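#onboarding

Welcome to the new folks! Below is a worked example of what a typical request in this channel looks like: someone posts a single protein sequence, and someone else replies with the predicted structure as tokens. Don't worry about understanding the tokens yet, we'll cover that in week two.

Example request:
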Amino acid sequence: MNKSLRVATITLGAIVGVAHIGVLGHLIDHTPREALGPTVPTLNIPNGPYSSYKIKAGKDGYEIEFRADDPKILESQKSLSLDKDKRGLFGGGTETRREWRRDQFTKDGTRNLGGAVLDGEGKSAKEIECIVADAGARSQGAMAGTSIAAGVGVPAVIGIPYVGWLAAGWVSLLGGKIGSATGSTIGSILNDC
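Example response:
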């Protein structure tokens, strides 16, 4: 036999033998999944710049705590230390100041002043809506009250000698005040405030 043919046959036999040993090893060592233990599921948890999560796993199952906007409160600390030893015209002067400030901010930049902040002034959207509705109702009621008083009350008191003109002004003011209060009451009923 030719030497190169002999080398090719031995090489091919070695490759086939190693392949068979690998396949047999894979088939023999194939253990069932239950023997390997429980598998952990793959979780695709959203991850952002302000998100955090905790995973607790045990033999009874697992628990996930996810916060999409964490931290909710950001802190800022500032300190200032100033030492001056100023020699003046009539002797020495010393100034020592130590300041330390700690602020808390929400993500949108609102500074925490110690209470619940719903908007810039601490009012909810419903409260703001009620305030705006009350202002409009008071304004409309005052105009209606003044016009009714001017049409009915002023002609009745304008003829009073010496003080008729003053009484007519009082009637108009009183009509506006009563109309404003009545408009506020009606507006709060209609706007559910």
